[in-house]
UniProtKB/TrEMBL annotation:
<feature type="region of interest" description="Disordered">
    <location>
        <begin position="1"/>
        <end position="24"/>
    </location>
</feature>
<feature type="compositionally biased region" description="Basic and acidic residues">
    <location>
        <begin position="9"/>
        <end position="24"/>
    </location>
</feature>
<protein>
    <submittedName>
        <fullName>Uncharacterized protein</fullName>
    </submittedName>
</protein>
<feature type="region of interest" description="Disordered">
    <location>
        <begin position="54"/>
        <end position="76"/>
    </location>
</feature>
């Protein structure tokens, strides 16, 4: 079985709430083998995130590119 997902976080300042103006995209893929007699069941998931954030909540803060990833495998 294969599962996939995508999530976008878009953040902007408002007059009463300064933010770090994050714009992040996160995608994941998960591969699974269903349990069956005399077969090894296993799972693999990979998640990646990229985008940009402001260095601080100041309106003139510089923009920073960010990237992260994680992977996980499970089985017997």
């Amino acid at each position: 079985m294969v599962e996939g997902s995508f999530f976008h976080l878009g953040e902007r300042d408002t007059p009463d709430r300064p933010t770090r103006d994050r714009s992040l995209d996160t995608a994941s893929v998960r591969l699974m083998r269903d349990p069956a007699r005399a077969k090894i069941d296993a799972e693999l998931e990979v998640i990646g995130q990229r985008g940009h954030v402001s260095a601080s909540v100041a309106s003139n803060a510089s923009r920073q590119h960010v990237r992260a990833q994680v992977s996980e495998a499970a089985g017997p």
